[in-house]
Write a sequence for this structure.
């Protein structure tokens, strides 16, 4: 008789009676039957010892931290009263761009004791700090004056910078916003005012948007400025001034019955009258007519010359082919100023066509004069150079426009010599002496402001 013995394996207890342990380093009984839920006395003892060690370390760390802060507080030195500064905000523009700097007050100096001879070093240091702070603010202020140039619009940037130098002209446009805003089509005035208000803004994207709007407004009436090609700065400047003048008569009629008045800023500040007189060489008979101008285009004399000489050549009598009633065919024509503007704009003809109809640039030097005396049929006036538009380049087909302008913070009778050079976004300080010396071969448009009469 054969007996069979069946041996079956007993599985390890499952939860909640035991916890399986897969750790190879654990005791064999734990690996076979699982780890019991209740801990052994040895494990409970080890856990309690670990807790005690952690608590001891935390207490030591807290004690060290309290001692360190106490020592630090005892070694701290309070600032002297004269070293405590006050924060001042300098708003650079209406778009809330600002530069914050620390400006320390200058304390009133006490009278020194003559016998002791105490040096006034403290007051001198405070003055130096104040001057340094002002220079820092001014440096940040200057950086915001530039305009971005994404696609060959340096001719627009240079023209705008020169116009923005004319503070009275800009103010006249701003003060009459209530009038010209009645005509939605007067986009040139609106966009120009927006640019003038953001001139000191550091937001390049906003300036780029305003420049694009200004360019579109000009291109509505002068389509040649609608593309992204380089253009002539003089032609663009003339187009802007003509468009502002265009709205003058309409605005004057519109405001006549509203108890308001409108005065064209271009006519008030830039426009003048030239008187052209024709005289027959045979009988002496002649005629006179007047013509409105916003700028004069002057020929460059061969080899160069002064601005005064170029202006005299323009006013010089020239021969004219004209058939008089007496039968003669030759007459003389002379131009003269009938009125004088507040701002005299002179365009130097640096570009001309050759006999083969090729456009070329003239590099003859022009002796730029800071002061210019101009006479008219009514009176005479002295003008000061306040801005220049310059063409930097070897040929007429390529190049770059930049602008030099007097510091906007300098008044019309200020004798200081603070100028800026505007090269798109890059703005640097310069002087009229440097401008007159460095722009002799590149000056293209000159802006002269009339001096106030004593």
């Amino acid at each position: 008789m054969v007996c069979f013995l069946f041996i079956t394996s007993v599985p390890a207890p499952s939860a909640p009676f035991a916890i399986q342990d897969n750790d190879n380093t654990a005791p064999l009984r734990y690996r076979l039957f699982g780890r019991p839920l209740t801990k052994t006395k040895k494990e409970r003892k080890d856990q309690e010892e670990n807790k005690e060690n952690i608590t001891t370390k935390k207490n030591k760390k807290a004690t060290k931290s309290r001692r360190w802060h106490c020592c630090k507080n005892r070694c701290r030195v309070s600032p002297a009263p004269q070293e405590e500064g006050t924060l001042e905000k300098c708003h650079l523009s209406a778009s809330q761009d600002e530069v914050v700097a620390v400006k320390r007050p200058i304390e009133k100096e006490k009278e020194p004791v003559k016998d002791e001879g105490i040096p006034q070093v403290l007051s001198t240091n405070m003055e130096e700090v104040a001057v340094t702070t002002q220079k820092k603010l001014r440096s940040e202020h200057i950086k915001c004056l530039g305009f971005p140039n994404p696609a060959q619009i340096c001719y627009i940037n240079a023209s705008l910078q020169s116009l923005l130098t004319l503070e009275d002209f800009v103010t006249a446009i701003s003060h009459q916003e209530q009038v010209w805003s009645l005509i939605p089509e007067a986009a040139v005035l609106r966009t120009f005012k927006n640019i003038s208000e953001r001139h000191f803004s550091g937001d390049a994207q906003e300036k780029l948007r305003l420049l694009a709007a200004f360019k579109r407004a000009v291109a509505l009436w002068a389509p040649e400025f609608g593309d992204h090609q380089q253009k002539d700065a003089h032609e663009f400047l003339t187009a802007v001034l003509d468009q502002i003048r265009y709205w003058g008569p309409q605005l004057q009629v519109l405001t006549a019955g509203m108890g308001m008045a409108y005065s064209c800023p271009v006519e008030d500040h830039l426009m003048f009258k030239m008187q052209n007189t024709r005289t027959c060489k045979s009988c002496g008979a002649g005629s006179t007519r007047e013509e409105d101008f916003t700028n004069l285009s002057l020929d460059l004399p061969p080899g160069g010359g002064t601005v005064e000489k170029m202006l005299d050549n323009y006013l010089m009598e020239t021969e004219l082919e004209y058939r008089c009633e007496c039968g003669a065919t030759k007459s003389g024509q002379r131009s003269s100023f009938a009125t004088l503007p507040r701002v005299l704009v002179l365009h130097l003809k640096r570009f001309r066509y050759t006999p083969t109809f090729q456009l070329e640039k003239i590099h003859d030097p022009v002796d730029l004069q800071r002061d210019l005396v101009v006479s008219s049929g009514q009176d005479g006036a002295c003008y000061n150079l306040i801005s220049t538009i310059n063409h930097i380049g070897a040929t007429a087909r390529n190049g770059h426009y930049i602008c030099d302008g007097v510091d906007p913070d300098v008044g019309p009778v200020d004798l200081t010599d603070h100028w800026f050079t505007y090269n798109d976004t890059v703005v640097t300080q310069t002087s009229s002496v440097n401008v007159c010396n460095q722009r002799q071969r590149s000056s293209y448009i000159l802006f002269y402001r009339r001096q106030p009469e004593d």
